[in-house]
Design brief:
The structure is a homodimer of 415-residue chains. Chain A is built from eleven helices and 16 strands. The relative contact order of chain A is 0.14. With 415 residues, chain A is an alpha+beta fold. Helices cover 32% and strands 26% of the residues of chain A. In chain A, helix 2 packs parallel to helix 3 (129-143). The longest helix of chain A is centred in the middle third of the chain and has 21 residues, at 263-283. Chain A has helices spanning 59-70, 90-108, 129-143, 150-156, 209-221, 263-283, 302-314, 316-323, 330-337, 370-377, 404-412; strands at residues 19-24, 36-41, 46-51, 77-84, 115-122, 165-173, 176-184, 199-205, 227-228, 238-247, 291-299, 350-353, 356-360, 363-364, 381-387, 393-400. In chain A, the strands form three sheets. A seven-stranded mixed sheet of chain A has the order 9-16-11-15-12-13-14, with helices on both faces. In chain A, strands 3-10-8-7-6 form a five-stranded mixed sheet, with helices on both faces. In chain A, strands 1-2-4-5 form a four-stranded mixed sheet, with helices on both faces. Chain A is globular and about 70 Å long. The model of chain A has no long low-confidence stretch (mean pLDDT 91). In chain A, strand 13 (356-360) and strand 14 (363-364) form a beta hairpin.
Chain lengths: 415, 415
């Protein structure tokens, strides 16, 4: 099930110069599943990333942070396995993540610090290291084939995802044409706090590591950090932005500030891709049948806008009402009420469901008719708009409904 | 479904001197359901209460606060309807709650400020005031019958509850025998923040309003404020403690400090009753099949102990794993990791499932076997113990699992 999400059309996915894609069936958890991905990057490629703030963060996240720091952002390869998160695995897990990089680095004849590891899957189980390593030659062989295998790459990182998530954009700047392609995965344990496991966007423009750092933070805040499926911040969330430096810029100089003429259109394209990939995760949320946009307006601060948006987005009662297409909208007011704004004046709160004015002055809007609420609740895409009447800040969060299938998927996930 | 909860045995429920119980079938939402409760108290009865901190708190909560303040805790009656929460109903709802009290007060010839109204049910729909008022004579007639109708009282306040919740205790102090009886309701929208809609405990001892105030706050913190079903703090949560003053104390003086010889045993009895009624709500949690006790130990503060306990208790992934009896315990570590303790050292965290040592030093405990985890997960009652290794504070929270039936119940609730 997925709320308005389709598999990407391979023809829409653009090859990005300066990199190659390879996948393998390594049998990490289940035999026959494409579960190993290697991306290789040409010399000069740089990356920046944001990772989960979960204190039980996975071993590969620790290694990624260390390598990106040691290599000052230079990157030659990344390796992703699904089926096992290598999280909650202590010192032993940390060593295996490091040895994965060492192994791939020696196969590719590159520094180990320029190899980044990623894992996703079940937490608290030992990583099947031997099977992972045994799968690498197949992935590297595939990598010889070229840079247009984004659909296979997206498939190779799926866990409970029902569809692969990949997207591309082309950007024209002063006669230059850049390609950007990205993939993401995730359907449950989704409430990213710095990025989500795993999203990668690769671009062939020549962008400085410093500017990439700024962009990855700004953009994750407006995309992956604005989605939630179940409120569970994963141990493995990671969002990686890579520049292969395969194409010089329209001025010939490295794109190293937002004032560079190529910067604004490129950043806008990365943001659009990131939002598309983030929203794809929500549309493919475990058991999702509805895609819900929650806008909170006229808040006194970003913090309280987020508090209200996430209180609504995480309420199991609100989410099951969406599943049932039931305009039981008092549940939304209830969530606004317990979001933690101690001095909220409910007389000033307005609630809209798409264009329908549901509540005002602490109660029902006089013109509200249940039929109008019912009409909107039956849609696949719904916007909830809460106006707090306290200030000028606003935020948007994307989420999905809560269905029987969420319970089925998560009660059966390991089996 | 209910996890280890049975209907109370009427023979275990004790009459409390100084009060009478009446119920009626008023047809508030559905015809034929017992949905109206009136408790009448003798002159001299005093009450103290805690209410929801939800900013969209219900109209009757506003009126209760006002009346308790005006009457300085004196109480002659309370009236409870189910089927409609009278919340999110604005100024109109407030007037109807007040008029309900005025009406009952004039029937009983008591001051309106000594009548407290309570409502529970669907939010954001107009209160069917006429049907409520029309049901009062039947409830008052029943009230003539006596003070042992606690089971009917518990039935009259049920919404999605599958079983009535009532309990009694007798306390002996220096030759005096006091009776305490209480009722509670609730199964969903349960994450009380000051008490839960609705719990009432009545005692025939003579306790001062000031001491009642202290007790109701202390006791709610250790009972109703330590339970959660779905994390949704209701608009109507209320916990009311009433002393009918029907019996003088063992010393003859009012029980007005914790130093009074009757105070300690009475307070302990109220706490035990409150915990029993609170735990009954969790055991009857919507769709619940498991009763989970979450203990967090060695925290640096009460705040962080609660953060960790509620992160686990609210995680849909943890709750569905309990439903499936699947020892997918990495999900618990994940919740500990995102609970918001920025400087948590995961090397110092230990996780136990009942007596099974699951995790230590950031990974699996060396002796942990999946079969041992499986054995505990199959039980109906399970204790999760998280040791943070940071300090001396600890807390306990009670919750339930998350099943298909939770979704069914809440997707169908209004139909």
């Amino acid at each position: 099930m997925a709320a308005g999400l389709q598999a990407p059309n391979p023809e829409d996915l653009l090859a990005v110069e300066g990199m190659r894609i390879g996948t393998a069936r390594a049998g990490i958890r289940k035999p026959g599943k494409r579960d190993l991905l290697v991306l290789q990057f040409d010399p000069g490629s740089v990356a920046s990333a944001v990772f989960t703030r979960n204190r039980f963060c996975a071993a590969p996240v620790h290694v990624c942070r260390k390598h990106l720091s040691e290599s000052q952002g230079l990157i030659r390869a990344l390796v992703v396995n699904t089926g096992n998160a290598n999280a909650g695995t202590g010192q032993a897990g940390l060593m295996l993540a490091q040895e994965t990089c060492d192994h791939l680095a020696s196969m590719l004849q590159v520094p180990a610090s320029q190899v980044l590891p990623f894992s996703t899957g079940v937490i608290h189980e030992p990583l099947p290291f031997d099977r992972l390593i045994a799968g690498l030659p197949e992935a590297l062989q595939a990598a010889e084939l070229g840079s247009d295998g984004w659909l296979q790459a997206a498939e190779a990182i799926m866990t409970t995802d029902s569809l692969p998530k990949a997207a591309s954009m082309a950007v024209e700047c002063g006669g230059k044409r850049y390609h950007l392609s990205g993939i993401s995965k995730g359907a449950g344990m989704i409430r990213p706090n710095m990025g989500t496991m795993l999203a990668v966007i690769v671009c062939d423009a020549t962008i400085s590591p410093g500017l990439l750092d700024c962009w990855v933070k700004d953009i994750s805040e407006q995309s992956f950090n604005r989605i939630t499926v179940d409120g569970d911040t994963s141990t493995n969330d990671s969002f990686l932005l890579v520049s292969t430096a395969a194409k010089s810029s329209s001025t010939g100089s490295v794109i190293d500030t937002d004032e560079h003429p190529d910067a604004a259109p490129l950043k806008q394209a990365v943001l659009q891709l990131a939002q598309r990939l983030a929203q794809a995760i929500v549309r493919d949320g475990e058991g999702a049948t509805k895609f819900i946009t929650i806008k909170v307006e006229q808040a006194a601060s970003q913090t309280e806008a987020s508090q209200v948006a996430y209180a609504i987005a995480h309420s199991p009662l609100v989410k099951t009402a969406f599943f049932a297409s039931d305009p039981n909208l008092g549940r939304i007011l209830c969530a606004v009420g317990y979001a933690g704004i101690d001095d909220l004046d409910v007389q000033k709160v307005d609630l809209f469901l798409d264009d329908v004015h549901v509540a005002s002055q602490g109660g029902r809007h006089p013109d509200y008719q249940e039929e109008a609420g019912q009409r909107v609740m039956k849609q696949q895409d719904i916007t909830v708009r809460v106006i707090l009447g306290r200030g000028l800040e606003e935020t948007t969060v994307w989420t999905c409904d809560f269905s029987h299938d969420y319970v089925s998927i998560n009660a059966d996930y390991r089996s």
